[in-house]
Design brief:
Layout lengths: L12 E5 L1 H6 L4 H16 L3 E9 L7 E10 L5 E10 L10 E8 L6 E6 L1 H19 L6 E5 L3 H13 L4 E5 L3 H15 L4 E2 L3 H5 L4 E4 L20 E4 L16 E4 L13 H5 L10 E2 H5 L13 E4 L4 H18 L3 E4 L2
Helix pairs in contact: 2-3, 2-9, 3-4, 3-9, 4-5
């Protein structure tokens, strides 16, 4: 090669994992929790960069919107990532999931893309993992009753992973459509090998539960979840897109924890009104979950504490889980390699 001959530009390839590739990985509950916990730990240690999610609403009166999540994780993961999720509540009418997701991972050293991953299942898994990890650090020592509102994709992983951590005497579920809640219960009973109690309303599902999870799909904010149903010492985890809780809910809490305070502002979220009204601020927030996992802040300190954990969903969890899945896929020969450049 002479001085006049330019060096050939390096090629760029990216790995592609579709839905069937993700299923072929047979990711275990422990692998899901470990990946999500790694992301939270690194967030707590300050080894990440995360941007508040943004939303794209394609037209007036649409039954859904797009969530755009962005972030970077250092260390062994060392990936930047962007996930776009289409969240369309009426998709069930066509037999479709309510959410479709796509995760793109980038090399943070040169900016080139390195992976394209179906994130529909990742979104469901990592949401359940954050619910479960929050409960691991914030729930009472021996919770006996789980009350869960909602039967969408993330709901399955909420219940499954929580049941893997705790020995509940009762697991109660409720959702708006009878066929949805009955089908959800049947799937859980088949997979978990335990009885699931299907309730006819919110109150009979939630009242007196030790862990109360609200993952509803309301068309607009409406107080379906009443503060008076929360018993002292309970852990409350509301994360519906549209708020289903009363404004008084934060008044009875000894601690409020989030996955990331930067996600507290925006258009949607279970505690949107509480932030707007000044009931939840950076000063009144006890901690981010990553700070608790990293040992920088306290989790539950007594059985009498009533605690609320609000998670909005982090790009970091998607990136960490996507990275772990990509590593396993390469190890067992799953997926496709595409020429990009």
């Amino acid at each position: 090669m002479t001085a006049e001959t330019p060096a050939a530009e390096p090629s760029v390839y990216l790995d592609y994992l579709n839905r069937w590739d993700i299923e072929a990985l047979h990711f275990s509950d422990q692998e899901i929790l470990a990946a999500a916990e790694q992301g939270l730990l690194m967030q707590g240690r300050g080894e990440t960069e995360i941007e508040p999610r943004t939303h794209i609403r394609p037209r007036a009166g649409a039954d859904g919107h797009f969530n755009v999540l962005r972030g970077w994780i250092g260390g062994d993961v060392d990936s930047a990532g962007v996930k776009v999720v289409g969240d369309f509540v009426e998709n069930y009418r066509e037999g479709r999931p309510s959410e479709y997701g796509l995760l793109t991972l980038f090399d943070p050293r040169i900016g080139a893309p390195k992976a394209l991953i179906d994130a529909t299942g990742i979104t469901e898994m990592r949401t359940g993992a954050i619910t479960a990890l929050g409960a691991k650090h914030l729930a009472p020592r021996n919770p006996k009753v789980l009350g869960h509102i909602g039967a969408r994709g993330t709901a399955y992983w909420n219940v499954r992973l929580l049941c893997g951590l705790f020995d509940f005497d009762e697991v109660r579920i409720h959702s708006r459509r009878p066929e949805s809640r009955e089908g959800f219960a049947a799937r859980l009973e088949a997979d978990l090998g335990r009885k699931i109690i299907v309730t006819e309303d919110w109150r009979s599902c939630l009242e007196g539960a030790d862990i109360m999870v609200e993952a509803s799909r309301l068309p607009e904010p409406s107080p379906h979840f009443l503060t008076e149903w929360v018993k002292p010492g309970a852990l409350v985890i509301p994360y519906g897109t549209m708020s289903a809780v009363e404004l008084s809910l934060t008044d009875i809490m000894d601690k409020v924890v989030m996955d990331d305070w930067g996600q507290a502002h925006g258009v949607f979220g279970a505690l949107r009104a509480h932030v707007d009204a000044g009931k939840l601020t950076a000063e009144t927030l006890h901690a981010e979950l990553g700070e608790i996992i990293a040992g920088l802040k306290s989790g539950r300190e007594s059985e009498d504490e009533t605690i609320l954990f609000w998670h909005r969903g982090l790009s970091l969890s998607d990136i960490a889980l996507g990275h772990a899945m990509l590593a396993k896929a390469k190890k067992i020969g799953v997926g496709q390699r595409l020429r990009f450049y």
